[in-house]
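Folding problem:
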Amino acid sequence: MKPVTLQLRIVSVATMFLSLLVVDLVRAFHLCVIDGTELRERAAVQHIQWLSVLPERGSIVDRHGDPLALTGESSAVYVRPVHFDRRFAPALGRALDLLPAEVNRKINSNDRFVWLKRDATPDQNTATLVLHAPGVGSQPSRRRLYPHSTLAGQLLGTVTIDLKGLGGVEGAFDGSLRGEAEAFAIERDAHGRRLLRDAADQPNSRPGARIELTIDAALQQVTETELEAAVTSNRAASGVAVVMDPQTGEILSLAHFPRFDPNQRSVAVSEVARNRVISDSYEPGSTFKSLVAAAALEAGVVHPDERLYCEGGSYVVGKRVVHDHERYGWLTFSDVIKHSSNICTAKVGERLGPEKLWHTLRSFGIGKTTGIDLPGEKSTALPPWQKWSRIQLVTTSFGQGVAVTPIQLVRAYAALANGGKLMRPYVVKRIVGDDGTVIKENRPEIVDRPISATTAATMTQMLQGVVEGGTGTKAKLDGINVAGKTGTAQKVDSATGRYSARARISSFIGYLPAEDPRYVILVIIDTPQTETYGGLVAAPAFRRIADYGIDRLGLRATVSPVPSIAPAASKMSLVAWNPSDFSGGMPSFLGLSMREALRQAQRAGWQVRTYGSGFVVSQDPPPGASTGDGRVLHLHFGALSG
């Protein structure tokens, strides 16, 4: 080959490669610089997916640390329809407990990414993954669990699929419970499969705070059980019950029937989920007479021993006639309350006058919201006294034509019980951060003083008479003094706008022990079909709730003395539990079986030393004591008496 020819070939090949290099460089410049931003965005859409790690939502516990709402592990299962083999659809539906129509709708979507189930249980996720269905995957998620099912459902509220609070404590304190989420990116290959990343690259979200309620879960359970029994046995439409500590304003139980299960989010916005204790007004009937009586005693217009004429059962007021359930003649004012005379209470209301009565009722919180730390509280306004007619003054005096919410009435009676102090009710005792720091703590708050301590003491004596020998005898407890009042109010017929001839709201409210009240308890039964009087319908449920509460506090001396046990003769066992945070006062274990006592102690993280057998008859530290730094609980067991 001639040198010239070889040189030409070399130049030609070099020129060709140089041209290709120039083309490649131009193309690379075009891709990286001119179209670079657009191409990177397209690649990110195809290969990078941003996910948000849901933080662990804070728990909600009762006053003794019993969990009422927890966050558990779950999985968010998804499908990429373009990669999915539809032959797997039936098995996929069975694995996730989804209806065939729902599965078909999702796998036939035009979207590139579709959630199949956001809160799949671990078992459902495992059953899905073993199918090895193309285009189906999952990522870690969290789900809200309510271990006691319907217990305090309306009070707790629930959460959305994204763990956002919905109603109740969950909604009111969503910001504290939710924690701080963190987003991160994951890479996927051409088939949508997730590429492995280092564990260190995974973000750590900050858990939410723990909400410690004033609710006593055991008392809540009893309240709900007895309320349900009263509603069903009287074939009533519904019922509510509230237990409050009159000294502090703490709500100890708040019950509804029908119940609401916050695990069932599908009914979260239904009627049954509404907290009617704070949102629904009703005519209180004769339970309202105690407030009118207190106002009259405070103003000095009547004395407990003063005799009043009750008109033989009929009292003409203008064109109206007020009736009593009995044909009473002369009664002392104490007996007026004891036997619940509408007529004589109305006469006392007339003596007092609209202005003084109105101001005292407002001081009792009637016509005002209570400020309870729950969403959805409502109140019906108390009309200005200047607009009251004579008949309105009369009917208001015995609780007709005036509206209250259950929480308003409970708070007003708490003022009778605690010496005349109107307290702000609350359900959250404290909010504790994930590091143990107390973020917020509620303390008793006096908002008004409607009556003096002397008037409150007089009213307590009068209300004891109601239970001892008046309309409320079925609320009587052995060994415990109870002060209370019955109520039977006509309901307004929504169709006619007039009072129904049959439909009633039956109620009983009282407090105990009368000399040093620890509980105010209200039971309301809506539209009972058997009896209608509050003393027959609601008082028995009150008694059973109160009976349990008294024993739970150890206020009734029903246990035999514990004999001293010599250390050498004692049979002692040590049960060690994993300590858990417990920041409440010492709970009462009195009266519990050994099994139940040990179960509750385990939950609170105590080391338990047991002595004897049977039921708990004494404990150290005692109920209500400060827990301090010690973690040893001494429980003495024996036989219960009485």
